[in-house]
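Hi everyone, sorry if this is the wrong subforum. Our group has a chain we'd like a structural model of before ordering constructs, and none of us has done structure prediction before. Sequence below.
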Amino acid sequence: MNFPLYIARRYLFSKKSTNAINVISFISMAGIAVASMALVVTLSVFNGFHDLVESLFTAMDPQLTVIPKEGKSVPADDPVLDKIRKMPEVEVAMDCVEDNALAVYGDRQTMVKIKGVEDSFVELTRIKDILYGEGEFVLQAANLQYGIMGIRLAETLGTSARWDGFLKVFAPKREGLLDMANPAEGFVEDSLLSPGVVFYVKQAKYDASYIIVPISFARELFDRYGMITSLELRLKDEASTDRVKDEIRAAAGDRYKVLDRYEQQEDTFKIMTIEKLMAYIFLTFILSVACFNIIGSLSMLIIDKKDDVVTLRNLGATDRQIMRIFLFEGRLIAIVGAAAGIIMGLFLCLLQQTFGIVKLGSSSGLFIIDAYPVSIHASDMALVFVTVLVVSFLAVWYPVRHFSRRLLK
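Answer:
Right subforum, don't worry. Here is the predicted structure as tokens:
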């Protein structure tokens, strides 16, 4: 039997001779529990937003994309790219040409991102799941070329899912000087028809600026015949993304970068990670303040148990064992408070997941979702528990050592 732990447990759960010690011990536990609960809930909400953004991006982003490290475009028939296309783990490989342009409809105009794709785009992504309107996904029919724009871009240009006439698109010529007397000669002009649908990714990056067009249209507009700006891939279901990505990187060498969905949206996920880290640091600071309540509780307990200390020493307890009694007392307060806080945090998260109690806004449909998203990760629960133990143990060690030495003189 661990003698110091046994005595510490008796001190914690038995009634003290001084009632104030019970109150202070309870306050210490409550403070740690509230701080632990706040950590659990905050980290789970950040996880919820992370998972939400991840689910929204996957409707448009390819599973893997290969882009040149230098320059905007590379030859489509590059042997390295052919080798990647023929890998047995690759289910769909699609050439893509993407660049900036100016879109004009009626008296409205705005800068847009033109994404030229092949017909296999519907197999590469879940684009059909996010189309709205009375038409269907079609990019080319005979000599006619169609463009599918984001829903926010349609609002900016004043069109609906189906617009009348042509949408004009302008891109600067890659070669030649701009003639100030006739600036229109410095641009390539082309036009698009509407297939009667728009896409809605629920991300401004796509919805407010992208137009999906045939790759032949993009090549002609940007003068990139026989070139691509990226090779987009979808792997077979049984293929491991990480393993295949490493194989493609080995094949691509130093000429290409291979990006998965997270790396394609690196800025967004990096910002979310930093925000989560900062929230964790601030709440850990609050937790450390709460842990100092334990010092007051232990100080009063040490004073209250002077007679017990004398009795224990007469029974043969060493000074080290007596000091460990009060160390275990502080650690038990921290452990009980952490466990209670994590349980309460999990309970609140489950309530939010089930009923969406805390809303994002007063108007339904104002945001992508109506309530704060929550996602519980076991790793975060372990992190919270370890953080509480480390902070509380550090907060308790010196005061107990100091007071115990004075008491045992």
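For your construct planning: The two ends are 27 Å apart (CA to CA). The chain is about 50% helix and 20% strand.
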